[in-house]
Amino acid sequence: MGAAAGSGGPGAAVAVTHADGVLYEGCFGLADIEWRQPVSPDTTFALGSVTKPVTALAVTLTARAGMLDLDSAVAEHLPRVVGPGTSATVRQLLTHTSGIPNFLSLPGFQERIEPLVRTSDDMLAAFTAEPLDFAPGTRWAYSNSGYRLLDLVLSAVTATPFDRALADLVLRPAGMTTACVPADDAVVPNRARGYRRDDGTVRVVAPTRRVVSGGAGGLVASLRDMVAFDRAVRRHRLVDEATDRNMLQPVRLLSGHTEDYGLGWVLSSCRGEQAAGHTGGIGGFSSVYARFPRLDAGVIVLSNDAGFPASLLAHEVATVALDLPDPDATDGGGPVPAV
């Protein structure tokens, strides 16, 4: 691990949990190279798409409270949004089966469109008018656009801004005391700076703006926060066991075919052991969170290096720390890469 996150370069924070305890915790490298600030359990990292299970939990909690129906159309909650994607349901947004194009895949988005985005309406205009990639429910295709819409749905049904709704529904109940979806100008204590490597040179990466990432990837959290989240999820302190089990069911398309994605959770395996989690990559950061329901265990890897092999490290750490077998059977190899 030390080689991947060198003492003089960007770093990483890693934890393996089991039951109510932490089997392993390690921090390596620097949170801020210029200030020589080392990574610690309290260093906050941008999580990227590891935000998605958290957003999905918040939406599911509002559904459990009777505030929305997961099978209701987006248009019912966001009447001002116009476009073919509004016929998709909240559940289809959660499971990436809405057909709404992924805004990151739109031609010229990062070069021409993103710099002009100032408001949520600007962001929506970038993708809601686009033709659907497929009819809702007929296929599966990863889409950040769906989760950007979900944060607006959550705001609408709770009548509170997304960052506050997420904190009230998930972050604070889970004990994630420093986790937040920060405004672009917010001062976040112990915040790591994101980096990338360019032909051997380490370069700073500007943070992705909240108006772009939102419910798709805007969460910032520390290793300590993620250990608390993992415990809350595995101990069913946020949703009950039946609801959690339902969130981990593979989505079924209209054809009857299933995909290895639940309500915000990538469904995979590590050396034959079933896992649920998500990867994340955003603005100079790379992260993984995976939990193993049968083993009552979890693995967390957070790094402020865009090219850090977080998924590979999570796989290797889980194998050793959880004493996973080495079967010849097909291995899913961890969650699919996040966009």
Short description:
The protein has 339 residues and is α+β, with helices and mostly antiparallel strands. 29% of the residues lie in helices and 20% in strands. The chain has one domain (12-321): Beta-lactamase.
Q: How would you describe the overall organization of this protein?
A:
By secondary structure, the protein is of the alpha+beta class. The two termini are 24 Å apart. 49% of the residues are buried. The C terminus is likely disordered. The chain has 11 helices and 14 strands. Helix 1 runs parallel beside helix 6 and helix 6 crosses helix 8. It has one domain: Beta-lactamase (3-Layer(aba) Sandwich), CATH 3.40.710.10.
Beta strands, count: 14
The percent of residues in helical segments reads 25-40%
Principal-axis shape equals globular
- Spans of at least 5 consecutive residues with low confidence: 329-339
Provide key terms for this protein.
single chain; 339 residues; alpha+beta; Beta-lactamase; 6-stranded antiparallel beta sheet; two-stranded antiparallel ribbon; globular
Produce the secondary structure layout.
Layout: E1 12-18, E2 21-28, E3 30-32, E4 37-38, E5 44-46, H1 51-64, H2 74-77, H3 90-94, H4 109-113, H5 120-127, H6 144-158, H7 162-171, E6 195-198, E7 201-204, H8 210-217, E8 220-222, H9 223-234, H10 241-247, E9 251-252, E10 258-259, E11 266-270, E12 273-282, E13 285-292, E14 297-303, H11 310-321
Antiparallel strand pairs: 1-2, 1-14, 3-4, 5-8, 6-7, 9-10, 11-12, 12-13, 13-14
Helix pairs in contact: 1-6, 1-7, 6-8
